[in-house]
Amino acid sequence: MLKIQLFLIIIHNITVFFLGFYQLLEPKVIVRCRKEDVAMVQAAVKKNIPIYKETVKSNIEVRIDENKFLPSDISGGVEVYNVDGKIKVSNTLESRMDLLAQQMMPEIRVQLFGANQNRKFMD
Fold this sequence. Notes:
- The protein is an alpha+beta fold.
- The chain is 51% helix and 16% strand.
- It contains 3 helices and 4 strands; from the N terminus they run αβαβββα.
- It has helices at residues 2-24, 38-56, 93-113; strands at 28-32, 61-64, 77-82, 88-92.
């Protein structure tokens, strides 16, 4: 059981950072996390920077925001910002669940109300 939890944490950390880094493709980024996750995020950043550099063939400078933290009542995850804070990639569990709910809405609608006879395309 412990091995499974550890594996899920590692996969989660790699996925969270890679998605944020790859979506921004900025040379400098700021990572914001919960206050209690700072140590884990620092370790994950150190592991992911060499992999990112090798894959993208570009350097990246990552700074963990020690002044502003994500709320403690969220389940976890990070937000990755560009240097000036104008672009944000939110990789929190709540934001991912919201995205999933939006993507699943057509399927949920069919399950609740049945197929729409007026709909011509089922994509």
